[in-house]
Input
Amino acid sequence: MSRVEQAINVAVMVVPLCLLGFAAYRAWGGALHWQDLVALFVLYTLCGLGVTVGFHRLFTHRSFKTGPALRLLFGALGSAAIEGPLIEWVANHRKHHQLSDQPGDPHSPHGHGSGLRGALRGLAHAHLGWILRGDAASDPQRYAKDLLADPLARFIDATFLLWALAGLALAFGLGYALSGTLAGALEALLWGGAVRIFLLHHATFSINSLCHFFGKTPYDTGDQSRNLTWLALPTMGEAWHNNHHAFPTSARHGLGRFQLDPSWWTISALARLGLAREVVRVAPERIEQRRAAAAGRSAA
Ligand SMILES: [Zn+2]
Ligand SMILES: [Zn+2]
Output
């Protein structure tokens, strides 16, 4: 990664943090309006689903198929989350699955020393350090060859900046539509833009850090992936991460009855509308078998 790219990565993390402080200061002073919270909620949900349903379950794991319009929409929304261009994101994530918690995993919190110091250093690396240092660089030729050969995926990847700006424009436009004033539009840009980017970034990064460190392991996956219940909603169901490592291609991550998974609800709604097809589902017997095997091993 070049110095310029590294500086951009640092800026993309630091600027929203500063603006979050500014937003909190304004909210404290009574300048927070319901329109700002609507902008935050709408943009967070749309961009969040862009990452989880689009970048992750559709493009990385091919958990379902859909037409070009929806592929473009999910790719655009995922890009608007500003977590990097599509093909780079997919390559890093596939490498993570291939080498999960082993040497070469772009963002494992393990293997960074012993004791509390090693744990904290590992969590910091998995959460943000690997991005700021830019030491991932997963080769797309090796990890995302299918997307390099896909004109639509290449287009989404090449127009990353456009979608990132479109996400900010959407927050601004929504604020203007709801408040009818320029000041209202700017305030919505702060909440639906900067605050949303900050919150969604750290929800996604928590999958890489917290979900490989804290939580339950109902399945034996050979790595440290975990299910973290309290993180399920803010991550749109991605925090059922041990489930996901056990069944990576499954479109549904919240496999249990009460495991909330808004990304799965979205995919299953699209399937019912005839807009998603070849949805990958895991047979209940297979789930039960893996659970029983893990329970048997831990009891032995
Ligand atoms: Zn993982
Ligand atoms: Zn995955």
Q: What stands out?
A: Residues 61 and 248 are 7 Å apart (CA to CA). The longest helix spans residues 34-60. The mean pLDDT is 94.
